[in-house]
Design a protein that fits this description.
Helices cover about 50% and strands about 10% of the residues. The chain is built from eleven helices and five strands. It is globular.
């Protein structure tokens, strides 16, 4: 297995694992809810350039439009919810891992991605998505694009993702999963309540607290992956309830360190872990 690289934030999203806590429909709701104007019209009002997508492999014209509209829908929604939008990034969407890894190594000579057959990874300015082995969802890997785009916004807010401190891996990924859940609900797929239920069920099954530190290599372990992403989603959701949605990107704009955590969320990191562990025992007690 190739060495992991600190340049990337791993969004290890083997979609079979996501399905554990989210039932996803394959139907794409291109225009959103009927009482809102179509996504493409709302996107044009943002006044940003069309997101650049490099398709690596055999994608039909319809699929290319589908993936573009998913990114545009995320741009619209996240601008509405978080007040920030950018098209200053490139997405590499591939039918095979080898092709996307080759694109990555051309941009970052001497580095390479670890193997993943279905999911995405983001740097500060690029998104890399592979759909080689996306069984269940098939080739419709749309929500992952929203997750990775939120990583772009984290970086655009002021904190580079190239040097992720072990203590904030759950916040980087959990907040991106929170944003992805908003996107999925807005697109008519999975509701926030469904994701909360599934994540809490998985948390009870694991029966462990949210880890204080997680190294990128640890994400290759299934339970750790679930704690960082699924429980990280619950943690972000819990923080939003107390400090508002703006706090998620405020953390990155304030510097992404422990002082920023205190200022953005109104509590120290230690206070958070104590309170969130109490919350775990209320909403996701371990199974007997």
């Amino acid at each position: 297995m190739p060495a992991l690289t600190p340049r990337t934030v791993a969004s290890l999203a083997p979609l079979a694992a996501i399905v554990v806590f989210a039932a996803v429909v394959a139907l794409i709701v291109v225009c959103g809810s009927p009482d809102r104007e179509p996504v493409d019209e709302r996107w044009r009002e943002l006044g940003v350039a069309e997101p650049e997508i490099v398709f690596l492999g055999d994608f039909s014209e319809e699929e290319q439009v589908l993936f573009l509209r998913e990114i545009q829908a995320a741009q619209v929604l996240f601008e509405e919810r978080f007040g920030i939008v950018t098209s200053d990034f490139t997405t590499y969407l591939s039918t095979t891992f080898n092709s996307v890894n080759a694109a990555y190594t051309r941009l970052y000579p001497g580095d390479q991605l670890y193997w993943f057959p279905c999911g995405g990874i983001a740097t500060d300015n690029e998104i890399f998505v592979v759909i080689e082995n996306c069984t269940g969802w098939g080739r419709a890997n749309e929500d992952v694009l929203a997750h990775e785009y939120f990583h772009i916004l984290q970086s655009a807010s002021g904190t580079s993702l190239r040097a992720i401190a072990p203590w904030k891996t759950w916040l980087v990924e959990g907040s991106a999963d929170y944003a992805m859940a908003l996107h999925s609900e807005a697109r008519g797929r999975t509701t926030m309540d469904e994701r909360r239920f599934g994540a809490r069920y998985g948390w009870s099954d694991i029966g462990e607290p949210l880890p204080r530190e997680t190294h990128i290599a640890d994400l290759l372990e299934d339970d750790t992956w679930k704690l960082v992403y699924q429980v990280g989603f619950l943690a972000a959701d819990w923080l939003v309830e107390r400090a508002g949605e703006d706090s998620l990107l405020a953390f990155f704009s304030l510097g992404g360190d422990e002082a920023a955590f205190n200022e953005a969320f109104g509590m120290t990191l230690d206070e958070f872990h104590i309170a969130f562990e109490e919350h775990r025992l209320e909403v996701a007690p371990p199974f007997e």
